[in-house]
Amino acid sequence: MTKEVSAKTVRTPASTANLGPGFDTLAIALDRFIEVDVEVSSSFEVTSSGYGAGVPVDDNHLALQVCKFVLGHSNVALSIRSDIPLARGMGSSAALAVAVAVACESDDPLSVAVHFEGHPENAAASLYGGAVAAASVEGRSVVRGIEVDSELVSVLVIPENELPTHKLRAALPKSVLRIDAIENLSNSLMLALSLKDASTIERFMFKDNIHQRYRSQFFTESDTIMDELIRSGCIGAAWSGAGSTMIGFSTRSHAKQVLSKVKRFQEDRGVFHQVEVVEFNRTGTVVQLA
Amino acid sequence: MTKEVSAKTVRTPASTANLGPGFDTLAIALDRFIEVDVEVSSSFEVTSSGYGAGVPVDDNHLALQVCKFVLGHSNVALSIRSDIPLARGMGSSAALAVAVAVACESDDPLSVAVHFEGHPENAAASLYGGAVAAASVEGRSVVRGIEVDSELVSVLVIPENELPTHKLRAALPKSVLRIDAIENLSNSLMLALSLKDASTIERFMFKDNIHQRYRSQFFTESDTIMDELIRSGCIGAAWSGAGSTMIGFSTRSHAKQVLSKVKRFQEDRGVFHQVEVVEFNRTGTVVQLA
Question: What ipTM does this complex have?
Fold first, then answer.
């Protein structure tokens, strides 16, 4: 007997990982969503709109792979609507994997996502919402929630460039200076422990030494964009995951001003990346039965 | 006009730093104390009992240096009683610096202690109590408190060996593997975010890659002691600061059993280090006016 899924709609938020120093560990969910309708079908069908609509539906399609992994078959019809851009460091594939795993009624959607993603922080944020620290320990995901001040919002600069995630990872050095490693762990702790009160967050807490500088060769504009976010009034700025999106952290009361200043800086440089104030998501993945 | 201090007694707790992965950042205050009575005097006088009683009272005496630094003179009489062993990784000098700075009514006893210690985590724990993450940022100390489950206690193995702190620091390598650095930052985050609920703390969260293994050449028994703490029922174990004390983390309900098992392991090996269940301190430095 094959497992049959109930018809439903699953809504899963995007996520931003690393937050600067918290490499492969810290992530926060973002109020951008992927929605997946699922119902039983005689064969795999998928219709997509929004980001990812152009991805070929072949055996490599992540949604198909997740269905097969969870159900042991792919007799489902999926309708996917996404406003999470692909390969831009906003956790689109983790969000899709979580959404489809939940749609297929997996007992452990986080493990399903980790099976395809390799590490759990984006998927954990997409599943649970809010900020998380997450680790893979002997094949098991361990996740801890982190309180985030409701006054804190993100200002995202989302370039058109898609960055090659595998190249960005391959560019990382085998070893790092001990003092750099210690500063990263210190900054990531200070940041994680300050997120609950925006007034206690300081710029140094976003400083990273172990990945951003090695990745900037693939996106030489990254430092300029982060600098513009800071000069526009953000508390701190970082690569969102492996980019190309750059994330600024702002209080809600400053966000509008930041937005217009960043746009003005871009105009002055003659570039026009998408710039947007995006709330941190608190709800995580939500299921609505049809 | 020289500043005169009011007669008072200051009581400051010991502290354990690093907690495994949180090198130079994490610390927790311990219920072992240094007490300092202070009163005005025509010249510097100090009487000491307990640990540190044998330290020569010359210009290098930390208490004298702190008095001069805070007051600009040293016309005070101090009576110091300490049950914090020296050079055993229990933050005795940070505790003394904090206690004397508070006794001398410094506006910023943490900065005073950092001036003499170099980094703030031990001093911050001794000043505020509880667990902290602390960083020095451009000469300024930044401290964040971390909630600790009241069910969590420490089991300390306190050897007679004093370890040479400067040699232990000099033994650290200039660079570390990136994957080791990332595991440290991940573990330290998971630990800091789990301390509030002892049932969520796991052994991997104490795993360090960037200091303990390089220091064990100076205390080859360290791995054996940590292993005995684990086998006796501790959740995790680590070097306390730069040793020689090793700290196990246990629930209160298991602590007695851990204590007797550790002692039995030591008997079997023919060693008899001091072993003690010590509560984490919650109060920090307390002042009582005479």
Answer: 0.95
